[in-house]
Design a protein that fits this description.
26 strands; single chain; Sulfate adenylyltransferase; alpha+beta; six-stranded mixed sheet; cytoplasm; SWIB_eIF2D; MDM2; translation initiation factor activity; globular
């Protein structure tokens, strides 16, 4: 479906009521596969903050099919398509998770196939029944039209999403009768297709840390514990292993240091998980019950592994939380001091969650702290931050970057928010290589802003012969302006005696000039073997490749191909009293969209978000704020305000106006 490029028709920010309906629909469809609470499924996809903006993007595929994408933080999470209904001939709309959603931890039924078969699926082929090694239908039976994933053999990372073309019952019967023919799954979306590229072309994680207890009954190896070593374990070894994994916290956290039962319960005082303490203590009591004369007991491998796995999961979530917080502090609070003070929940949702390590999920409820307030109080006791409670909400007022935990801390190379390398050393090298260009950061783009339209003859066209002759008479640069083309035409006409003696506005034809300006349907403009100079210029320019060059102050920017993109500002009505201001093409003027968004939040006292992809981002401002947007762009980038634009009351739409840089509709 997404093998070839698709066309974006519209982008709409969902209302709160629509978001609630979507979250309920997600819980309803994917809860049968979940091993955790069903309320956590929507949080895995959209984040714990229910105010996180979700964009509905309507696209048309290369086959003319209309599909709706749901995008969160520039990542497509779900898409809606139609499948055949089981009970009638009608079509039902079904939610499909993208590979990004599956990599976040959302579970669906899966086929397992050899890895060479995956290459065929990536090219758009359907999964054939002979290519199925196993499936999850034993625990979650599926029917025709059920949304299914495809994993490589020996892996739990889904790389393909599609719909089942055969039920699990019929598939098992076919295997028993050894009549394995036909298709098992219709491929809709794969890793490596255009939908995957729309989300930033992120690579799959090395392996997902999913609890596939319903699909995989045997516990996989956990570091030093394999199935063989778990077959017979003494009570002492099991207790030591559980306690050691429980107490091995991240460096810098001093929650525990002992290994006794009292130390185990001291986890509660350190705001650690009560459930973990209870489960560990119960496991310890069970392990201490002797079953032989030598006080040696045989421990069920799965029970020990599940207990250890729970300890590992909570410790890993604590590590992810600390790493994400420190990354967000360095990447945002340190580089943008005016960000503080900030609400603790806002900092968590807008900065900490996108700063987690790529390929991981982060939920404060799955850490030992359970609540954000407890986490902030804990690191405040450690001296990392200072907080202030205001109107029942914790606000971060100061971050101590001289703390020992920040010393030597390295930001992860890939973050979930962008999937790009964030290493400071690589960024420093990149900035040194770009010293010849002007930085578009805020408050540094001072100077008059202007641009020049440039042209170049296309290779292999008939017009190239004319420019080769003109270049002998009047040398031309590689990139020509309209003025250069006009001078070249005049020089060519004078050199070849083509100027009309009776009316010098007209130029007579020769073979090269006629081939360059003639069209399929000639009109009266070229009657009598002559044509006006301005028409010659217009027709020649229409056949040339177009470029443009931006100039900020006295510094010229690199030449770029295409027509100069104007900033598009439009006011969209969401209801009778609500409206949004959408800003497009701003990425061609600056790469600091978040800084502009921050200035708009302060100026407009309204919500501002940057959605879409890094290639085509869209800035959404709550309310009718076209004048405030233009004023901010003028102050930060030097872009002139369109004439006739005035501030309007909230909810009103400004009159359409434009200049060379901005168009307001």
């Amino acid at each position: 479906m997404f093998k070839k490029p698709f066309t974006i028709k519209s982008q709409t920010l969902l209302r709160s009521s629509d978001i609630r309906k979507l979250r309920s629909r997600v819980v309803e469809q994917f809860s049968p596969y979940a091993t955790c609470n069903t309320t956590d499924i929507a949080s895995v996809l959209f984040g714990t903050d229910k105010s996180t903006p979700i964009t509905a993007v309507r696209i048309v595929t290369h086959a003319g099919r209309t599909v709706t994408l749901y995008v969160v933080n520039s990542i497509p999470i779900l898409f809606v398509d139609t499948v055949d209904s089981l009970n009638s001939n009608r079509l039902d709309e079904v939610l499909f998770p993208t590979v990004y959603a599956l990599w976040r931890g959302v579970q669906i039924g899966c086929f397992f196939t050899p890895k060479p078969v995956l290459d065929r699926l990536f090219n758009g082929a359907d999964l054939m029944m002979p290519g199925v090694i196993s499936h999850s239908g034993d625990n979650h039976p599926f029917h025709v039209g059920t949304v299914m994933g495809v994993c490589g053999h020996g892996s739990l990372t889904p790389l393909v999403v599609g719909t089942a073309l055969i039920s699990s019952h019929d598939l098992d019967d076919a295997f028993q009768k050894e009549s394995v023919r036909g298709k098992a799954l219709h491929t809709c979306h794969t890793y490596g297709d255009e939908l995957w590229a729309y989300g930033g072309s992120l690579d799959p994680p090395v392996e997902l840390n999913l609890s596939m207890s319903d699909q995989v009954k045997k516990v996989q190896s956990l570091d030093s514990l394999s199935e063989q070593s778990l077959s017979i374990i003494s009570n002492t070894d099991a207790i030591d292993t559980v306690q050691q994994l429980t107490l091995d916290k991240l460096d810098g956290w001093t929650l525990l240091s002992g290994d006794s039962e009292s130390d185990l319960y001291s986890l509660v005082d350190s705001e650690f998980s009560t459930d973990l303490v209870t489960n560990t203590h119960v496991a310890k009591e069970n392990l201490e019950q002797p079953t032989s004369e030598n006080n040696e007991s045989l421990v069920e491998p799965v029970q020990v592994a599940e207990c250890i796995k729970g300890c590992i999961a909570i410790c890993e979530n604590d590590r992810l939380m600390q790493t994400a917080f420190m990354t967000a502090a360095i990447q945002h609070a340190k580089k943008t001091p005016h960000l503080l003070p900030i609400s603790g929940s806002t900092f968590y949702s807008n900065y900490v969650l996108p700063s987690r390590e790529w390929g991981t999920t982060l939920d404060i409820k799955k850490t030992s702290f359970k609540k954000l307030s407890k986490y902030y109080k804990t690191i405040e006791k450690e001296g990392m931050i200072k907080t202030k409670e205001q109107a029942g909400e914790i606000r971060i007022t100061f971050i101590n970057f001289s703390h020992s935990l920040f010393e030597g801390f390295e930001v992860p190379c890939k973050l979930a928010g962008n999937g790009r390398c964030t290493n400071e050393t690589s960024q420093l090298k990149k900035s040194e290589s770009e010293t010849s260009t002007v930085s578009h950061s805020s408050k540094q783009a001072g100077g008059k802003l202007s641009f020049t339209n440039l042209y170049m003859p296309p290779k292999g066209s008939s017009i190239i012969d004319l420019f080769q002759e003109v270049n002998k008479i009047h040398p031309l640069p590689k990139y020509m302006t309209a003025h250069d083309i006009r001078q070249a035409i005049d020089a060519y006409a004078v050199e070849n005696n083509l100027v009309d003696v009776n009316d010098k506005r007209y130029i007579k034809f020769d073979i090269l000039l006629y081939d360059a300006v003639r069209t399929k349907n000639e009109d009266a403009a070229i009657a009598n073997d002559r044509i006006r100079r301005d028409i010659i210029q217009e027709r020649i320019i229409s056949k040339l490749n177009k470029f443009y060059q931006l100039k900020i102050g006295d510094v010229l920017q690199p030449v770029k191909k295409g027509v100069f993109p104007m900033i598009q500002i439009s006011i969209e009505k969401r209801s009778k009293s609500k409206s949004l201001t959408c800003v497009l093409n701003l990425q061609h003027y600056t790469d600091k969209l978040q800084d502009i968004a921050h200035e708009l939040r302060l100026k407009c006292s309204a919500s501002v978000s940057v959605n879409g992809t890094p290639i085509a981002p869209e800035m959404i401002v709550q309310g009718s704020k076209a004048y405030e947007v233009c004023q901010t762009l003028h102050e930060m980038l030097g872009i002139p305000i369109p004439p006739g634009l005035v501030a309007v009351r909230s909810g009103m739409k400004p009159k359409p106006c434009e200049n060379k840089f901005i168009k307001i509709t």
